[in-house]
Amino acid sequence: xxxxxxxxxxxxAPEQHPGSPRQRSTQQRQPKKLSIFFGVVxxxxxxxxxxxxxxxxxxxxxxxGLYQAIAMFLVAYFIICMTVLSVCAISTNxxxxxxxxxxxxxxxxxxxxxxxxxxxxxxxxxxGCALFVLGLVEAIxxxxxxxxxxxxxxxxxxGYWWSLLYGTGVALLCLLVCLVGAHIYAKATFxxxxxxxxxxxxxxxxxxxxxxxxxxxxxxxxxxxxxTGPVFPTTANFTGFKLDTLxxxxxxxxxxxxxxxxxxxxATVFAVMFNGCTGIMAGSNMSxxxxxxxxxxxxxxxxxxxxTFIIYNLLCVLVACSCDRVLLQRDYSFLxxxxxxxxxxxxxxxxxxxxxxxxxxxxxxxxxxxxxxxxLFGKVLSPAKKTSHSGNPWVSVLISWFLVxxxxxxxxxxxxxxxxxxxxxxxxxxxxxxxxxxxxxxxPNFRPTFRYFTWHTCVLGIVGCAVMMFLINAIYASASIAxxxxxxxxxxxxxxxxxxxxxxxxxxxxxxxxxxxxLDVRKDHVKFWRPQVLxxxxxxxxxxxxxxxxxxxxxxxxxxxxHVQLGDLNTLPSxxxxxxxxxxxxxxxxxNIKAFVNLTLADSVRHGxxxxxxxxxxxxxxxxxxxxxxxxxxxxxxxLIDPSLSTIQCTDPLGPLQELEQQPxxxxxxxxxxxxxxxxxxxxxxxxxxxxxxxxxIIADAMKMLKNVALARYFNNFxxxxxxxxxxxxxxxxxxxxxVWPVNLxxxxxxxxxxxxxxxxxxxxxxxxxxxxxxxxTLRLFLCVEQGRSVRxxxxxxxxxxxxxxxxxxxxxxxxxxxxxxxxxxxxxxLSAVNKLILDTAQxxxxxxxxxxxxxxxxxxxxxxxxxxxxxxxxxxGPTLLIHGVTPVITTDL
Length: 894
Hints:
It is a single chain. This protein is an alpha/beta fold. Helices cover 50% and strands 8% of the residues. Helix 5 (101-109) packs across helix 16 (413-441), helix 16 (413-441) crosses helix 18 (474-494) and helix 22 (605-615) runs parallel beside helix 24 (692-704). The longest helix has 35 residues, at 57-91.
């Protein structure tokens, strides 16, 4: 008699590309139809029962006793329930699609973690299917392949190849069911569910209806019948309900397992028992076939877990009350011997094993289909995307069946049993981790309707799964974790960026916010000072050298690239800066620097820089140093064009320019137009954007705000790799130097080597020397000594200061024949002479120079003269930083 299911229970919508009109219209006509009972409860019940309920209940009670058996089930179900709570939380936090646990993990933890766990979950289901197929074949051969006492022939031939043939037949049966689709699978599992429930009913009835009897133990239970070693009894008793029997089964009595010959312990018995409880994802794997996954998965899974827990514990109590210890320890199939009709239990074993095999096969195909749709492995899995008209991923089913067939060639049931369980436990731990990450991230959009969980339950689930993995097999557990990490790295480097959202970003945000609040500026100390730089950049195309150099002197501090765009938001339809952030962030990635980007819109460059100095950073992470490009007429050089274009050879002088214009820019920054477009808010030549008066006013503003200031000149063509690898034929024989002039060269008599600004120069030079790429550079410190004074005394004093500051540098005294007084107006000749002195003294030429930057004059009318003096001082010096420090940054204290 065929079982007729309501059509609404099993029809499945075809899968189309997400968001396509065809998919939406198809879903409206033919929604997913599997209900809670047929889509979640039945698959989960049958996966959790499998063969443990029929063949391992007696083993658990016989070895560990009733007390420890119940304790084992409590511990096992505690671990399982922690994971179930996580599954329920994730599944009720939004719409679920095909893929079950893989879909949950990948959308929560990102493609790397989700993809690696998805592959392992797929292989776990494939191996699980093969495991149950082999188990069914062993059960069939054990029943029909061994000659009966009254016959002289085998009902079924036995042997490796015959077993492989039987396994192939069972796998083909599972394949046919899964190929037809979820509706036939639902029918088949419902029929098997009825059979298993009926057999369970006969088992419970048998405890009460069958009178006490003596059971003949199997011959394999007495392997030492030849007279050597201990002799075990050949019969045991089913006593019915007796207090003496119960008392004899309360406590543990671990002995040798007659099937393996090894002595059992609590850990080994627990591992065997736990293997039968790892089926809680069977309903989640059907998420793509359910009418309402977010509603069905929590309710169905919890129902199945509670039901199986009650059944297992009831059986433990009934077995302990009615079967003596010898029967439980020496005959694992005793339920068949005490049943009202022996074949009932055999039918139950066959049915539950077949159901578990089908459940794993269809689960594997749905996971593979979900992996293929997400394109994590490119075109490798693209065939698995194909579906039938009813939405069944038939190619995924075929691939899964083929892999199951390959596993069947191993023919070793015990070889893959531990691996399957460990893979499943790893997936459970990943689900707990996903839920924990979502909970810890405190994202506003994580608000599942299922609220009976906390981060404590997630942690307990992770710990429980990890302990069980290593308890079952430490070697396999370690290997599976290593395999998962390998897959994770592979996907991280090879897969495209996904649009699912990365939980790592939410967790980082949560932790950064917490620690920023803990970073108290009132507890700052000079011992732990580090540069936190705001570098103003007008056009990155001409500023690549300076951007990379400043990245070297930040010393793990804050580094912000600032940019001011002139404009008035009142006259603009929208914020023009929002579309520019991607280009700036791409620039940061391209240059491989660790920097933030801060853009602002203002009516002038000065006001824009004031905005950035006021608002850049958060809490204790705020810029303390402003870096500007120098204000001069140096032509800019575009460093972001394709390097291959720089080698263009063309007789037509306009040819290279025309070809450059035809090349697409790497970044969406405006092209350089000539002398009116300079770098870093300094080099604007004709003053169309920024005039000299405003430029010096920016320097004064920064010092008023207690910010250190650095002016960078001649970094247009700076190339760190070229600078740090000079040819060996150069005058310095390949040596690299960094020169420091820690005295105000405009007023050498008004400063000493131990003022705040001079020490700031020394600190920055020392920081540069601490960077890995600059460690081979030699610091040269130039000591200006007025003629007639003791050079040795000044040199020893400076050397002692460097020793106390732990700065390694070579000191070079420089005779100074003219010290202008503060009242003397500096002439151009004097500045040119100082410039020539710097050039002539520092041989070979250094990679970069650090010079003292004096304060701007109080009289704003002298700003232009001040800028002219700086220009003459640094003329043709090569890469130079003019630095003025306003805060103490160095100490000799411990």
